[in-house]
Design goal:
heterodimer; A: alpha/beta; 15 helices; globular; B: 95 residues; Histone, subunit A
Amino acid sequence: MINKSIKELSRMLRSGQVSSLELAQEYLKRIDKLNPEINAFVTVDPELTLSQAKHADILISKGHQNPLTGIPIAQKDIFVAKGWKTTCGSKMLENFIGPYDAGVIEKFDNAGAVNLGKTNMDEFAMGSSNETSYFGKVKNPWDRDRVPGGSSGGSAAAVAARLCVAATGTDTGGSIRQPASLCGLSGLKPTYGTVSRYGMIAFASSLDQAGPMARSCEDMALMMNVMGGFDERDSTSLNRPVEDYSRDLNKPLQGLRIGLPKEYFGEGLDTGVDQVIQQSISEFRKLGAEFVDISLPNTKLSIPVYYVLAPAEASSNLSRFDGVRYGYRAPEYNDLIDMYCKTRAQGFGAEVKRRILIGTYVLSAGYYDAYYLKAQQIRRLIAQDFINAFEECDIILGPTAPSTAFKTGEKADDPVAMYLQDIYTIAVNLAGLPGMSIPAGFAGNLPVGLQIIGNYFDESRMLNVGHAYQQVTDWHSRMPEGI
Amino acid sequence: MSLSSSDVKRIAHLARIEVSDEEVEETLKKLSGILGLIEQMQAVDTTGIAPMSHSQEVNQRLREDVVTKTNQRELFQSLAPSVEDGLYLVPKVIE
């Protein structure tokens, strides 16, 4: 049961082989058993979950047609959900109960999906290992001494350990794709503006984008059909016609031009990861794809640019946490300014504070041109690299992360080493392009993710490419031992 | 660009985050490492390149100026650390 696709489960729900209530109970049982160690969920609320499941059973009995109806999923704890504790991995929001539903939550509710709970994450989505969460580290189900990646590490671990059928994530610099890679699942960051940011707690608003994390591309297409679409409450939501993301899943790959950026296969790439990617390249050849060498010359600059722009936007976004209207307030202070300073010193963790300080510095008087403006100029060069590349190819392929999952604590005290984890993912956010990671094999018993980058609004094609690969390989259906 | 301890204190004050004297040294070390990384940008000639603030060149939408939300003062106040008579309480700022 736990390794079935959304389509299969949906069929079973409709034929009455299983009820949504039974499914939810089964997954809650699994969470009860495995979550104390893996720590993928920060909040479970069986009462809320089971009432949603009962409602889904009624919808199914009335012939409700959405494939997600009655499917138990998990929501990253960055999405505000009415009646659910919404912490964003921070002490700042430890006791915050969502007063409304985020756009994404609302869409899944309307589809009749069942929420199993809120998943752990790096604090305010700032991290690549899930070690910055106030609610404790998440363990990688493939090797519990290792990190699941981040920031959507709780969602990734939950899907990998089959504690839910699928989950949501958010990706500002790789936070869906890198944990998907490290935990052996499929994860998609759509084109910026495709999924509503309403009620998704903001980190860097010009980069943040939500997407699905699931076993397969087929499951992700069904998730995207629910998640995607215009939301007038998000000022950067794009008003485009509704898409069926599963429409191209079964197209042949004959003649597809796949670009291999030389910058993604150089120094810094683990040899085990490289070997797996090379094997996947031969698979795609067999499927009829053609390969072209391309260059994304400004790849290296994406990290410095990101670590100016993202902290700058974060320093502004996180100024709302001041201990006045919601969230944590320091117990003792002298005056108003002191209350702000102590509240924020005590409520935020070390990495969040570092990024706010960097952001404040690069935006401060006298430094704006040298840092912020410069970074925005190089951002254009990075985006232009992709525009040029897509004149020669339809899709770009490479590794998602430079290595497999690293040991817990290995990079925890070295922010710069941690930032380099995102060398292959960050440029995609800066350009606003869609990017995806799918499982492509193992290096030393640890999953390796293959990254597929598409042109703007080309998610259907990316899912087609991934689905074709998943028809001839079974990496996506492998499960870790002991779950 | 190298930072000093007094820079850290100044930035922390601008960011409204208290950094104790004991934390300054470590914060300085970590921030300097990150700024070292950021410094790589300075080698790039960006003369004449228009800054890119957003990936989609779209304008902000306008909507009808009509009431779309209901007042939920009580619900929102229930989330606040300190309230009285429908107001948010903060330390006294005017003598």
